[in-house]
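2.7 Reproducibility. Because tokenized structures are sensitive to small changes in the input, we list the exact sequence used for Histidine ammonia-lyase, including any N-terminal residues retained from the expression construct. No trimming or masking was applied before prediction.
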Amino acid sequence: MIIDGEHLTLEDIIEVAVKKGSVELALESKEKVETSRKYVEKIIRNNDVVYGVTTGFGKFCNVNISSQDTRDLQVNLIRSHSAGVGEYLPEDAVRAMMLLRANALAKGYSGIRYSTLQTLIDMLNKGVIPQVPSQGSLGASGDLVPLAHMVLVMIGEGEATYKGKVMSGKEAMQLAGIMPVTLEAKEGLALINGTQAMTAIGSLALAEAINLSRIADISAALTFEALNGVIDAFDENVNLVRPHKGQIECARNMRKLLEGSQFVTHQGNPKVQDAYTLRCIPQVHGAVRDALEHIKEIVEIEMNSATDNPLIFPESDVVISGGNFHGEPIAINMDYMGVAVSELASIAERRIERLVNPSLNEGLPAFLVDNGGLNSGLMIAQYTAASLVSENKTLVTPASVDSIPSSANQEDHVSMGTIAARKARKIVENTRNVLAIELLCAAQAIDLRLKSKNNQRLGKGTKLMYDFIREKVMQLQKDRVLSNDIKNLAELIKRGKLIEKVEKERGNLVN
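Resulting structure tokens (single pass, no recycling of outputs):
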């Protein structure tokens, strides 16, 4: 993959962060980087006063630094800012962060040397992955703490994983055949002043959230059949007169998945209409789709932005201190994504309740098991779903509305964007498990329907999904440990196997 600071996409993030694709810097980016670096060197020769180059940082912005101390200034910056705590970020998040930082530097506005940028790319390509604590970023001035831990390894310090083993950064660089960097003026600041940690975590969460929005249609369709839903609610006429794009797409998916089903009903026979969790699937799932589409647009802009400070504009002969490091665009949209994805879990859990509750499940056995009483069936699976939904409710409290001043009130409003991104990824994980539980319950309900009505057919799309689930998870005949079943289905969701199965044989669902 060639990066130039302009064209990175969400799909590219997955290719490099998850699938471990390699990266190369575009030739034109090399030229921009070298031009920007020459301008920084001119600043140093002229003893110009430029923030972070010939001055201290934060509240120390008015402290002048001599030209002979500029190297020490950059190393001290990295060491002092490596103050993270908590669990380490997963490898995919760190790989995404490295890619995003390299892409931002490739724009040529940061004043870094080409050789330093190439070192970061070499680490990514050869699998030297810094150990980066997950906590400590305020999201302005960018992700200083996590990015500093990334740069520690670049200078031969800190810790990293290499070929599956955790070791010192120095050892990892040696084994990979990469020479550690001796930071020059501006380079430490150029490497850590940006929004790449929050954007990395958020990008990975967003990619799975988009996948979950498609899985939710499938799990809802299975439940819809199991509960003999009234399909008229998905009629094209209904949805075209309220023309939200996501709603129209979801209704189309539902019709496609349920085509040919003999388990669905029509209004007035025997029901006039369904409860909201069935009837309003396009309205709820569609709103989530629309939200995710907007969030993707914002995130991809951020992926291709220069977010450090100051920025170098050689063609204009100027260096400008600004605020592109402020993570507010990502912070707000990560909170937005958390709210949107939590709604997929919320409505799915209510569908699960309808499946297992004998007062609501259209004549199915209580908790979807024969010989109830002796067997508890899927009773506690619903408990787990309810627990995850409740946890999501605590997680969706916005991080972006909070701010605590730092650096002696010089940095007096911050975004908390990395907290928002971490919360969003946890909400996605919880929602994945709720949808796995819905698939488990819906497949069991369909088993029971088929048992009493052997001559009825499932929809063309739902039949594929039902058969695939039954290849991976057995029908529940009597009580067993359910945790492994949920885990197996959640893993199939995460790896995209369920979508792949449907689309291979049924044609593409609407993205």
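The beta strands are 2-3, 24-25, 85-88, 129-130, 133-135, 159-162, 165-168, 311-313, 318-320.
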